[in-house]
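PROTEIN DESIGN WORKSHEET
SECTION A - STRUCTURE
LENGTH: 169
TOKENS:
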């Protein structure tokens, strides 16, 4: 069993992912931290600045394809830009249950305002609102299950996800 969390930056993918992986006995695979930062030895924003968006997205898709193929017992915290990577998204759908951690735009905006800047594909060309509006339907289309996280404690969100996973067995 694999589980993939998708959603915007600030949705709680890493936070909930770590707790959910522990609860389910899965190995956490945080694409940004475990693949990008390990490969390059640098922070995500620095890597994005160095590669440029087009190369970054292509390389990110390849990293996801390589590091998830044939794997099992993973909790995958995907980057927000996975919605643009059709081959990676399809592979994740084939090997895992895709869970969309949905939060309203205003919550994403507030959470990101509290954190240091991070690599968000497309933010140089579009506003955060435009990216949210563009990605939201892609996340919904690709999700096997959608859970609203903004007014719930992490334990409640995990209970909803676990309930869904049990119902699909």
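SECTION B - SEQUENCE
RESIDUE ASSIGNMENT:
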């Amino acid at each position: 069993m694999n589980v993939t969390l998708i959603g915007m930056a600030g949705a709680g993918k890493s936070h909930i992912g770590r707790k959910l992986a522990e609860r389910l006995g899965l190995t956490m695979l945080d694409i940004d931290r475990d693949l990008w930062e390990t490969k390059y030895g640098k922070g995500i924003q620095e890597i994005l600045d160095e590669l440029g968006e087009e190369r970054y997205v292509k390389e990110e898709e390849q990293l996801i394809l390589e590091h998830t193929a044939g794997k099992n017992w993973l909790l995958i915290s995907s980057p927000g830009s996975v919605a643009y990577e059709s081959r990676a998204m399809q592979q994740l759908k084939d090997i895992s249950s895709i869970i969309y951690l949905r939060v309203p735009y205003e919550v994403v905006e507030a959470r990101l305002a509290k954190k240091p800047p991070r690599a968000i594909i497309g933010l140089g060309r579009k506003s955060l609102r435009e990216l949210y509006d563009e990605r939201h339907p892609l996340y919904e289309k690709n999700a096997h299950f959608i859970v609203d996280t903004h007014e719930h404690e992490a334990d409640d969100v995990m209970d909803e996800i676990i309930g869904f996973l049990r119902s699909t067995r």
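SECTION C - NOTES
The two ends are 10 Å apart (CA to CA).
Residues 31 and 78 are 6 Å apart (CA to CA).
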